[in-house]
Amino acid sequence: MGSAARPWRGPAAVRARRLLLSRLFPPRSLQDEDGEPSCRSQRLMLQAGLIHPSSPGCFHYLPPAVRAMEKLVRVVDGAMREVAGQKLSMPSLSPAELWRASGRWERMGTELFRLRDRHGKSYCLGPTHEEVVAELVAARSGLSHKQLPLRLYQVSRKFRDEPKPRFGLLRSREFYMKDMYTFDASEEAARSTYDELCGAYGSLLRRLGLPFVRVQAAAGNIGGSMSHEFQLPADVGEDRLVLCPEGHFAANVETLNGEQASCPTCGGKLTQTRGIEVGHTFYLGTKYSSVANAVFYSPENKPVLAEMGCYGLGITRILAASIEVLSTEDSIRWPSLIAPYQLCFIPPKRGSREEEEEGAALLERVYDDVAEALPHLAGDSVLDDRTQLTIGKRLKDANKLGYPFVVIAGKRVCEDPPVFEVWNQNSGEVLFLSKEGVIELLSKVQVP
């Protein structure tokens, strides 16, 4: 039998698929939240209905934030595929004996969320998974040197009992992180993997359009002999950084002995800034593989401890940090790839001359034509149907929510042919375009 004919979808079906702002959750009141948010990103995310506080350091991620996060994860997945990453998922509940064996059950102190099951067995909610992944690889015995390098990663919720959670998603008790764990046959191979993964992180952040610096960092509770952080410079950042103006040297001040004022390479005067850590990389050696006996078999068929590395990337922290560094005081600016929605269409105010001359119907036709001509944008376009409000009020709300593009049926929609206003929110540019011009402009928009 031949394939079934595709059902025809008429205008009613197209209209049914429109995303109407009035029906999206949460309702768009865009009012200031009670209390005193402690930084720009927290205030903007609360106002825009991206997050809602649940308990100290814990938040509901509301639908627009989940859309942005899912897009970011798709971008990250693509970057990890390019370095041969294999995605898996490990339990959040981690047995205490694994952490006791590595010494971190005691060393991590009150930072670990600890609990007991009904049988009295102790667990923690994992802030990171070095012990767990080493034990997993050890349990899958028979790993050959031909299977290395092995690069396993996950995107999952992590937990850390912060004493003073603050800054919204920048320092919370429950958060999403991408963590990769690598296994190599030698120190040389592991250091090559380290350089490759650091390069992948840099490429990812550049693709998002985020200004970052890679700095020498302390290994902290995770350990290892080499560590770097990927920092977004920001006044609200909790880390103090020193940077060579010529780019020869960059470090977190916690790695320095005393006050270092000049670059060790060129002798230039170091500048100081603050940063938000969005990524952290560690060369671990055999610190965890030796505890779990995570080995591979050499060409001589002898067991050899794998050389490990770990590579963290804060998913929810990148969401908040990007808003912190790219936005204005009253308007969200997203990395355009991960904006919850790419487009907002604003029809005329109810009862206006533009509406009486079918401005609303013309704009809806553009909405439908964009969805048909550019299917990848069909689910990324919102129609602001709150026509009881002025165009100016709805445009202000669109700024707060951070749509990269806003298409408006303004005064020139009555011309023949109709002309639409298109606001590029990230550049501040306003264009006046025909329907065909709108579609041509939006054809360049990328959605992961």
List the helices and strands and how they pair.
Blueprint: H1 11-16, E1 19-20, H2 40-47, E2 51-55, E3 58-61, H3 63-82, E4 86-87, E5 93-95, H4 96-102, H5 104-107, E6 113-116, E7 122-125, H6 130-139, E8 150-159, E9 174-184, H7 187-207, E10 213-216, E11 226-233, E12 239-243, E13 250-252, E14 271-285, H8 289-292, E15 295-297, E16 303-305, E17 307-314, H9 315-326, E18 343-346, H10 353-356, H11 359-373, E19 381-383, H12 391-401, E20 405-408, E21 420-424, E22 429-433, H13 435-442
Parallel strand pairs: 1-19, 4-8, 18-19, 18-20
Antiparallel strand pairs: 2-3, 5-7, 6-7, 8-9, 9-17, 10-11, 11-14, 12-13, 12-14, 14-17, 15-16, 20-21, 21-22
The largest pleated sheet is described as: 9 strands, mixed
- Report the structural category: alpha+beta
Average pLDDT works out at 93
Indicate the low-confidence ranges by residue numbers.
1-10
Radius of gyration: 26 Å
Q: Beta fraction of the residues?
A: 25-35%
Helices, by number, come to 13
How many DSSP E strands? Answer: 22
Work out the helicity level. 25-40%
Distance between the termini: 36 Å
* Overall 3D form: elongated
Report on the structure:
The protein has 448 residues and is an alpha+beta fold. The chain is 29% helix and 26% strand. Strands 4, 8, 9, 10, 11, 12, 13, 14 and 17 form a nine-stranded mixed β-sheet that branches. Helix 11 packs parallel to helix 13 (435-442). Residues 1-10 have low confidence and may be disordered.
